[in-house]
Amino acid sequence: MQFFTTQLLNGLTSGVVYAMLAVGYSLVYGILQQINFAHGYVYMFGTFVTASLITSGCPLWLAIIAGLVAGAVIAIAVERFAYRPVRGNRLAPTVTAVGVGLIIENVARLIWTSKIRPMPFPFQTDIIRLGPVVLSPLQIVVAVVGIAMAALLWIIITKTDLGRAMRAVKDDLATAELMGVPVDRVVVTVYVLGALFGVVGGILYGAYYNTLSVTMGFSGTLNAFTATVIGGIGSVWGAFAGGLLLGVLQAMVTGYVSSALLNTVTFGLLIAFLLFRPTGIAGVHVASRP
Amino acid sequence: MLLAFQAITQRALAAFAVTGLILAGPLGGTATAADDAIHIASTAPLTGSAAAYGIETMNGVRLAIEQINAAGGIGGKQIKLSEYDDQCDPTPAATAANQIISDRDIVAVVGNVCSSATLAQIPIFGRVGLPVLAATTSSPALSAKGYQNFARIIPNDDIQGAGSMNLGTKVLGYKRIAVLYPSDDYGQALLAIAKNAAAASGAEIVAAETYVTGSTNDFSSVLANIAAANPDALYLAGYYADMGAAVSQSVRAFGDKHIPLLANAQTQVPEYVSLAGAAAEGTWVTNVYDINNPSKENKAFVAAYTKKFNAEPGVQAAAGYDNIYVLKQAIEDNKGSTENLMPVIRATRHDGAMGTISFDKNGDNVGGSLVVLRLTGGKWVFDEASTKKLTAH
Q1: Where do the H-state alpha helices sit in chain B?
Q2: Per the CB < 8 Å rule, is A219 touching B225?
């Protein structure tokens, strides 16, 4: 039971991180039906800004804000120069996204080199004992941040004018524009929101696993993208559900089957979902637009 | 629209033509120019997750070449080095190998660091009979296949891996060992060696957990498995970056329980210490090289390396350095000829920075004694008592 609880907590913790990263894909896909392939690189950059500021002795809160601002600024630039000129085209944004992603990764290599670096963060070596179960204060931080971010997203989508505008753009971009919705501004905001969730996820990732590399934009994204598909691409709640499910599943496979089968099970699950339930857990049906 | 397209096409063609002319000039020149130098190529990871190994190895290679050239070269001929980045990945490694064999001036390949990359390259070099004198590739598979064009500077994993395990079981007395290994060739080989070494010394492998190097950053679940197996010691059979992350996360899995860490030579880099933090303290390492080796060859190497790079050399640098001196001695033993070098390399006996280097019939290093070090106060400290006990077995 103690072992089960430990693995469950491990799985939920990585699940929250996957969910934060997955929201960036689902928000954009849900509203624009586009896979934002530059997302991984944007949050990588923001996370590295935070990590290098922490390392250079900057106060934690300032480093986190700077990372979020960096992520937002890059998201705005990517939307303006790589996506907006080709909006409406199904294929072109994929190509521009990969291109801009490579540019971001290589700029990051120039600034921070290719070396894998630690990310100092409070509570990293502290533990809390709950009976036989050992818990990290960072796991509590990850959980609290995850719940708070989910609540924030729910409020934005359902209670604000921005959320209403996002839903209008999702239903029909052209009609929304005719009704006076400032479509360009809404689309930028969607990308920025995705980037902010991504940077939060990236910072949690760096803090909890204490290891960052510029390649996390690509490799770290693999699990987040799998979580997005499992949850139902386009549904932000699906992204949360998919992230948590994937995290727990991976921990249980490692704990009760074998760490050697981890990727086999993860990508087997991805293929199974794509074959038998392409709409994911949330079952979002994305109608093709005329 | 059509006109515009044509204009673009014409401009593009013109640009291609001009680029072609510019490229053709110097390339055509070097391909035919026969200078009187000994051309060698190096292939090592200069970027990516193993870059720290590759760059340090190349520093050793560069230092040795600089010294030899300054002293008049080999039989009056200067050494010229072409460097290739294999990224520790078979695909770019094969690309690099194909580029190297297309340069007919090259007489030998040195500096290899990663076994997976080198495994992909040896058959390609073999097609043109190009000898490979690897620096720190350690997979036994490289010599087990009977390649005629291969030799290496450091002892293979069978000797090294058994060293860390023998330290744990025979010298330190641990009976229950857990192993953390990467899923690639290198990790699989070390796991098999750990199992054999454990069986030979009456110890038991109580957990064997794996991960994918370069993409696994979350070790919490495998560490929970290791903690649940209640081992006496954990054998870290992987690369520094992964081991650093895993050890950093181990505090949460093991709680207050102290589990001694046994590691192989790959872990003895400063990056492991900076990534793993305080949890790395006390890590045991067996290695084939130690900077504090008092031999005159090593003292001279350490002084020159420290002066040039303003950093202390590790095993990678020493292997890269000895790599070039073994090649130099082989060419001298071959009366200055670079023809049919491999049999001569395998017959070479060289006293280098690492110790006495000599080879068996498969190109494996048979000389060189293991050393034991322990991370103490963030520094790798030579442990003389354990070294004596280990080599006495």
Answers
A1: 2-32, 51-70, 90-101, 115-127, 141-144, 157-166, 185-200, 220-228, 240-254, 270-276, 296-309, 315-333, 341-346, 384-392
A2: no
Residues of B in contact with A117 (CB under 8 A): 274-275
Task: Say if residue A71 is exposed, middle or buried (CB neighbours under 10 Å; 0-12, 13-18, 19+).
Answer: buried
User: CA-CA distance, B210 to B223, in Å (whole number)?
Assistant: 10
Judge whether B64 and B58 are in contact, CB under 8 Å: no
From the candidates A109, A141, A211, which should be mutated to test the interface with B, based on the most B CB atoms within 10 A? A211
What residues of A are in contact with residue B253 (Cβ under 8 Å)? 6, 134
Which runs of consecutive H residues, i.e. helices, occur in B75-211?
90-101, 115-127, 141-144, 157-166, 185-200
Closest-CA distance, A287 to chain B, in angstroms, reads 34
Which domains does chain A carry?
A: 13-115+132-276 (1.10.3470)
Read off the pLDDT of residues B269-320 as tens digits, 9 standing for 90 and up. 889 999 999 999 999 999 888 888 777 899 999 999 999 999 999 889 999 9
Give chain B's domains with CATH numbers.
38-155+292-362 (3.40.50.2300), 158-287+372-392 (3.40.50.2300)
From the list A114, A220, A222, which residue is nearest B48 (CB)? A114
The predicted-structure confidence for A69-96, as pLDDT tens digits, reads as follows 999 999 999 999 999 998 878 889 889 9
